[in-house]
Every structure is written in C-alpha cells, then in structure tokens.
C-alpha cells in the first residue's frame, strides 16, 4: 500500500480511535449485549441465522478465547507513538490470549446494546472479522470468524482446510509478509446490512468503519509488543476464493500480525 495512503488513513481514523479506545476502557461499561429479559442477544446488523449459515455450528468448531484485558502497561499516547508497519516476523507463535485481545480491539463488544470498540454508522455493523491462523498456540491452522457477542472463534465452514496463509499471500500479489505472519486478520463488509438504511452512501460508511477497526488492531498490537502491517493491495476475487467468502462478503483489509524481535 502506498505510504501516502497509510498516512492519510491513520490521520483520518486517529480521532475516532481515541474516543473508541477511551470508551472501551471506561470501568463498568463492559458486558455482552442483552435483551430486556437479561439474555444475550446478537449484535445489531447480523442475525444468528445469518451467522450460522456462514460458520460450522458444531461445538467442535467453536473456540473460546481467553477473557479480554481492559488495561495494560502502555498509555494510548505511547501506542500511537510506537505504531509502525512491520513486515518481518519471527517464528515464535502467537498466544491465544494475544489473538483474542487483537480480535476484541478490532470488533469487540463494549456496551449493553452491542456497541463495539469501533464506531459504526447507525449501529449497523456491516463488518466481519476473519482470522487466518497459521501459527497460534492451541489453535489448528485454518480460517475462523470472530463472534463479537460471544468473544469466540468459529471455524469458517466454507473455507478450504489447512493453513491458508500461502494462498492469501498469493492473492495479495505475492507480499511475503502475508504468509510469514503468524496470523492475518481480514476485515470484510456485507454492504446490504448498511445500504438497506443509508443507500449507496452506506458503502462509504463501511469502508470508514474498516479504517477505525484496523487502527484499533494496530494500536493493540503495539501494546502487546507485536508487529502488524496494513495490506490493501490484493485481488478481491482471489481473496474470496482463498477464504471461501460468500458472494456478498467483500474483503476490505488484510492485517498480518506476528511476533517481532
């Protein structure tokens, strides 16, 4: 991705990210979404039926993530100062707690009505977060969808089996760091969730939301002393084939993350 695009995207999203991270860290405001009966309900924008049609519904396919952390050793200002694009990773695997923290930073639930760490136009939440795991302790290589309401991973039933890092790197025009990273987070948009309310303008809102979520993840990577890099240069259709995405799921961003020296 051109350096000018990265700088512009970072400057545009920092204000929203700052507010989002401060809200997410406020004490007493963290819980799963609930309805009036006190039972958990799915986040706005995607139904349980829609989600189950896209993921395997067997218990074996669900992977619980360690509880997310709401504080850390670095201030927001320190993570902003330390954020850099990293394209070289060590062979050390990621820990499940690190993976879960990164997923929560990008799309985690932080409010009783299903509000998330990243702002979404009208609370429509058109984004999905996929995890392409290659080297994560305790997690079989493969493609998973993050379930924000339950803070868990669900194996993506439509995806080809095994490690998809190499296929994803090929789809990203041969960028080796996509394959070398321990995991790649992929942000996709289902535009109907937001254009049904805002018309074609909703597509722009979805793309802006991807920028908010991505910056959250990059800052969390800094706080965890991990490296990350945003990747926007890829063949859309090749990414969809590599991950087994549905026709209405459009890939917007690849976010390789891994251990660094």
Your description of this structure?
There is one protein chain. The protein is α+β, with helices and mostly antiparallel strands and 261 residues long. 38% of the residues lie in helices and 15% in strands. Strands 1-4-3-2-5-7-6 form a seven-stranded antiparallel sheet, sandwiched between helices. A hairpin with an 8-residue loop joins strand 2 (127-133) and strand 3 (142-147). Helix 1 packs across helix 8, helix 4 (96-107) packs antiparallel against helix 8 (201-223) and helix 5 packs antiparallel against helix 9 (236-243).
Descriptive terms for the model:
single chain, 15% strand, NADH Oxidase, globular, 9 helices, 38% helix, 7-stranded antiparallel sheet, disordered N terminus, alpha+beta, 261 residues
